[in-house]
Fold these 4 entries.
Entry 1:
Amino acid sequence: MVKHVILWKLHDHYSQEKKEEIKIGIKNGLESLKGKIPGLVDIHVLIHGMETSNADAMLEVLFTDESSLKGYGIHPEHVKIADTFVRPHTQTRLCLDFEEPDAS
């Protein structure tokens, strides 16, 4: 299994109210991909960080393998959501992809 973790910081010029609206759009859009992309096992977007956080949202996706992760990146449904709800509103994106340790 492969895990894909993203942290985003939204543009600073947005009001807190606008940031909340954007985060809900990101969450609803990306979580709607479950069941639509081959190899995507689970997907969650966290948008209610603690005050100590310096990121606005976190994406955590579990894939069956690395090729599924690569397919996700170019899948039309993902690209549409990323281009609509994510990329226009984020100033910083950090990514960590890794293989999940074998549970056995």
Entry 2:
Amino acid sequence: MAKTSSVNKNELRKATVKKYAARRKELKAIIKNPATSAEDRSAAQLKLMKQPRDANPIRVTLRCAVTGRPRGNLRKFGLSRIQFREKALAGELTGVVKASW
């Protein structure tokens, strides 16, 4: 089980990303547009840099929904590899069958 503080910090990051998403998108569009003047581009870059570090979606960690484990997660199920195996063998995941050949 992951530390509760780590899981909570990740949830706060998700909220920050959601809060700043629209403004980040606007600034990124200004920066990427080739028709933008150099002054406007540099101003947009400065505004983007002044945003909180946690506003960047890269900083959000994919965590297991059950344990909060940050590594070895399967996106489709939202579980770590360990929880996935336990639930699959117990028959708690629909459509998942142990391979045999």
Entry 3:
Amino acid sequence: MSSLIEKITLYDLLGYSIPGSILIGMAGSAYLIKNNRYQCFYDTYKDSFGYLFSALLVLGYVAGMLIAEITDIIIGACKATLDFDVKEKLKEVDYKSVEKALKKANYMTYENRLRSEEDVLKYLSSMYGDIQSDVKYNRLHNYSSSKLVCKNLAFVSFCGFIIVLSYLIQSFDLMFLPDTNVVKVVFIICGCCTSFFLFIRRWKKMYVKTQFYTVVWFIEKYNKDENG
């Protein structure tokens, strides 16, 4: 039970609910501020923030799942670039060891051979499914959770930039805003852009790391008798 709760916390709360809640919170706040209804909203619901927070988490979970699907579609369009990075990392792996492990696990027939990183990539999904179900290699689940969090937060950061930019476009009197407001807006834009690139950078690292360790631990699992 404790293991299940831990997985729900990492995978569901951090991966879906928090990014989704942040996105909904940003969009709702931008709407209230733009229409000068922030104070009215606070006065109306100031005694119900607990219920609102619970509803926000539930809606955030749904929004988080949609974010994950959208980002998966975007990543699918960039898969060639990502595969190139994975292939470069896989050059550190011995093909013969991968081939032996795949044959022992019955994912590959005896006649087949691995001749390049491209061939290894074809079996990654099978290796991942095998490894991630083994408790000994549960760190792979943590890597995947971290990858999900970074991916979704990168999308949220980008949406935050779009929200603020849309607000600026509709605010033709921006040049007449007090200097403090201008500074705040510029700070938010810079923060969103910086967060986006940092989360993308972190996600890419975790993506390559997950793929690489899937192969390494798969070899370890099926060739451990030979290595030991």
Entry 4:
Amino acid sequence: MGRRASKANKNVYYLARIQAAARVKDFSSREQASERLGIERSRLARIELDKIQPYPEEVLIMAKAYDAPYLCRDFCSNVCPIGIENALGGKLKDRKKDSFERLSLRFISSAHGMEDLSRKLVDISKDGKITEEEYESFHKVLKAMNELTESVKEIKAYIVDNPELRSRFEKDLTI
């Protein structure tokens, strides 16, 4: 087995290759992996060392070969401008990197009072229609739901952006 590349140890493509090496011996060295993938060895090294971004086609090849579909999601969410804009609801902006603690507090703050909002939603929906008087309450419920949804997305994005967490929770994520 090849040596661990300490400079690449947080790179998502490198980590995916190393995980795949546990199943497929050819992925244990960059040289063998490059032959199997059809990506030049020096290019694969630059990708794994964060010197260059891979082409979408290369990401697709690695995702399939490594059995790591999250590579495509990561690329689309963090590199591809179309994917980034789509993930942000058509609002192209830099995703700020908040700490896990801040994201957790934001989630808890959003979730606070959900029991009361759930009761309001039951009251609004129990007769099967939304009356004119209920629209304002329903608007508040939807606003709170949107805030909670956004908090959940931010925590999931935090996990996806962290290769160690992503590898542990990939099966639990639907982004």
